[in-house]
Design a protein that fits this description.
The chain contains eleven helices and no strands. The longest helix is centred in the last third of the chain and has 42 residues. The chain is an all-alpha fold.
């Protein structure tokens, strides 16, 4: 039995003879007035009996909050939430507006002009019918088909132009984003010089994506034609309803197909530009990065499309409505030119917001997936600390995105 001055028999080997009271038990105040020591509760020696239950430590004790994540550029260097991705995309545009918005405006303008010209030709055909309804029955069928072809032909030309310029724009924006993560800026010319060698691979990715998306659509079209041909002699409402049901089901399946593969391959463009991969390797890389987080990536992409569509619509609709009215009601050459200009402005404004925002979200999702699955945030933090020590962002920061630099490749 200990006399209170030596170690207790229950004291584990290696422990100090005098142990502090259990955490949370009342402490004896060092400022106790003389003669009142007997009123303070005595602490039992360690191991002499059951200990009081654990109590929550008072504020300021036992808890050290995590320091804020390092943020040298447009995002914090840690796994990103939805707010970080959207905020980072806005900061990408604001941090380098000349390069981002300037390139986006050029791409949007090249895509909007063919649509505007096609619509003006269609309005010119429709104007005669609207101004003289009696001539509708005698309208030249060739003229109506010409207006139809002009409108949708312009859309096809616009899609072809957009295919080229948006692919190039995405590559250049990925290079700007890769530097902006560290707080560095890069001009449009410098970004193009760093990106132009990756252009063939970018077109390869877009071409493969087009094949993946169009082949099922061709199959669906053939199935619908076959169903219609099978029931060609049956004009009953039931047969027509069956065709509509089959068509609706096939289109729903195709929509699910598009969303699935669009999500799986959403990170291929960043892999091409920032990692230097080929088309097939980039698609495989995107597939692997999205694995394990498919629904989150899908949700962010859908929400981005919704937000961008709303903003683009707000900017585009007034110009489109005004251009349509001038195109249908005006009869002078000036009205035609004004209609073309207004529709072009509307399309350019809408696409100028859509292109960089979707590209920025895709690039930041790519960075987020690498930080989550490969501990890439440790690589970025180490590089950012060194850059802050040097006081500038060196061009060698672009090489950090290579997969060989991941903590867990």
């Amino acid at each position: 039995m200990s006399d209170g001055h030596g170690p207790s028999p229950e004291t584990p080997p290696g422990w100090a003879p005098e142990q502090p009271p259990p955490y949370g038990a009342p402490q004896t105040s060092p400022w106790t007035a003389p003669g009142f020591e007997h009123q303070q509760p005595q602490q039992p020696p360690p191991g002499s009996g059951p200990q009081p239950p654990y109590q929550q430590p008072p504020p300021g004790y036992g808890y050290m909050p995590h320091p804020p994540a390092l943020r040298p550029g447009i995002i914090p260097l840690r796994p990103l939430g939805l707010g970080d991705i959207l905020d980072g995309t806005i900061k990408l545009i604001r941090s380098n507006p000349k390069a981002v918005l300037g390139l986006s405006a050029v791409a949007a303008l090249l895509g909007a002009v063919p649509i505007a010209i096609g619509q003006v030709f269609a309005f010119d055909t429709m104007r005669g019918v609207l101004n003289d309804p009696a001539s509708a029955e005698q309208a030249d069928v060739t003229g109506l088909y010409g207006g139809f072809i002009a409108q949708y032909g312009g859309a096809l030309v616009s899609y072809a132009v957009s295919f080229v310029v948006v692919t190039l724009l995405t590559g250049v924006l990925m290079r700007i984003l890769g530097r902006a993560v560290f707080g560095g800026k890069i001009s449009a010319g410098e970004a193009w010089q760093l990106t132009k060698s990756r252009v063939p691979a970018l077109f390869g990715v877009v071409g493969l994506m087009a094949v993946i998306m169009l082949v099922p659509l061709v199959v669906i079209a053939l199935i619908i034609v076959a169903v219609i041909a099978t029931g060609a002699g049956d004009d009953s409402p039931a047969a027509a309803g069956g065709v509509l049901v089959i068509t609706g089901l096939l289109l729903i399946l195709y929509l699910a197909y598009v969303l699935y593969f669009r999500t799986r391959f959403a990170l291929a463009a960043p892999a091409v530009v920032l990692e230097g991969r080929g088309p097939i390797d980039a698609l495989r890389r995107s597939w692997n990065l999205v694995t394990g987080d498919f629904w989150r990536v899908l949700g962010i992409l859908l929400l981005t499309s919704l937000l961008v569509g709303l903003v683009a619509g707000i900017l585009e609709v007034p110009f489109t409505i005004a251009g349509t009215l001038f195109g249908l009601l005006g009869e002078s050459a000036g009205a035609t030119v004004l209609s073309t200009v207004l529709i072009t402005i509307g399309g350019t404004l809408g696409a100028m917001i859509t292109y960089p925002f979707e590209a920025g979200v895709s690039g930041l999702l790519y960075a987020d997936r690498r930080m989550r699955s490969e501990a890439f945030d440790l690589v970025l933090q180490t590089a950012a600390i060194e850059q802050q020590r040097q006081g500038w962002v060196h061009a060698s920061a672009d090489e950090l995105w290579h997969p060989s630099n991941s903590a867990r490749p």
